[in-house]
Amino acid sequence: MKIKFRKTASLLLVGIMVFSSSACGSRGNAEDLNLARNEGDDKKVVNLFGPMERSDPNIRKNVARTAHEKTVNIAEEELDVYVEYRTYTAEDHQDKTYDDVTLDRARNNMDDLYLLNPDTIQTLGREGRLADLSGLDCVKNLRDVVKIANTVDGKLVAIPQEVVAYGLFVNKDMFDRYKLKLPNTEEEFLECCRVFKEKGIETPVGANRWWLECFVLAQAYADMYNGDTTEEEIAALNSGEAKMSDYMRPGFEFLQELIDKGYIDAEKAYRSEAIEGERQDFVDQKTPIVMAYWGAANTGTAYKGMDFNMQVIGFPSRLGQMPVLSMSGYGVSAEAENYEDTMDVMNIILSDEALQIYTDTNQVISPSKNVEVQCSDSLKPLNDRINEGVYVLGSNASMNVEQWGNICLIVRELLNGASVDECMAQFDRLQEEFKDR
User: Fold this and answer.
1) Do 291 and 283 form a contact (C-beta atoms < 8 A)?
2) Which of 33, 79, 256, 269 is deepest in the core (most CB within 10 A)?
3) Is 32's pLDDT higher than 60?
């Protein structure tokens, strides 16, 4: 299962950064591909491995690339250093994934700085290959959620430039038409779906094979992440004292009910890629509810500029509308050749000044508690909950069992006909395999 995850799902978060900004890396051998060259032998160099090449300075079409490079440019000018970009993008499913190549490079100490997906942060952190970043000046400004998600064995091993939030994208006009309030709990959500179905909406929830896991995460961890026993509960899960399947079961039973009642088309969801499978029905107002990430409300290729009142809310839970957060992050090689210079670069690109530039350019949630995003009206309900400190984590490097990819895969088994009990047995096996690692 884990091998399959790396071949199919592990690029999702870094891929979102690329997709939302139309960024395209170039394919090639990671060991040889070097898209930006040092301009002088006497210049200090920091080697960055990521999914995006350095853009032509005369081209400003790529918003995210420009945002990231703006922060890098600040560091280069202030430190008199050159950040050299190295990149790799798989051309098809038969190639090594970005994560596979990243693991190879990090284990061979080939670069100074890496953009890492959550499962890779977890793996390299446990192997001791990532430096502890807790001493950086910028850390004191980080949201607690960022530190929780990227701490492995007591060390802060990665920091992102943005936090990715997932929510339900709803057609508020359709809810108003049938005098429905936006749902807070699982029961309210089911009632909305019942009314839509009764009124002739064939499939109330448009779904794909990637993001149904957010329903599970919201219900599984609402109490844990919004209570006072987070660390204790994670420790109990890691030791096996608490069963992961007990946390997962309510969410899987909820999804099974959605499938059984025809509120989700399981067969279509199983084969649909993110956004591609459900977008048109949502745009055409045939489906009132879909799920996506924050940036999908800000990009014209997804759900920006709908011809109706679109609102983005959290997933239903016992504690109300619940955002699901995940994040990729920058990690520094513990044995980086240019260690001190790399740490200096990190301090600058993750400073509040640089993060404000990044956030203003990309319109994303900042990892800094001091930097606010000026979001669209449609995103305000989700943003308000996050600012209240209400959320669950979809990825958490301190948990032995990788969450995002494994839950996604087991949800697919449910879509393909597996029973809830069979899915819970898979969680029990995973937990036993990774207990006390």
Assistant:
1) no
2) 269
3) no
